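Hi P.,

Sorry for the delay on this. The queue was packed all week, but I finally got your sequence through. Input first:
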Amino acid sequence: MNSGELMVVLIVAIVMITSIFKARTKSHYQKDADSGVENDRLRGQVQQLQERIRVLERIVTDRGVETAAQIEALRDRDRIAEEDKA
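Then the structure:
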């Protein structure tokens, strides 16, 4: 192998190694970018779920108070009806 052929082989090897390195680096950065997008999406979903839980908690507690008031009103009505009978 003469020096010209050796030079061509070295240039081809350097280009191949460089292209492999670029591809791996680009793939790594793309994965980081994708995971960042995925993290943002998941954060949004968690926030929506937390808001829905707050609404459900409000419904449950408000309804509980409302239901308790209705039960007390019925008890008062029954008690007044029994006193009227007596």
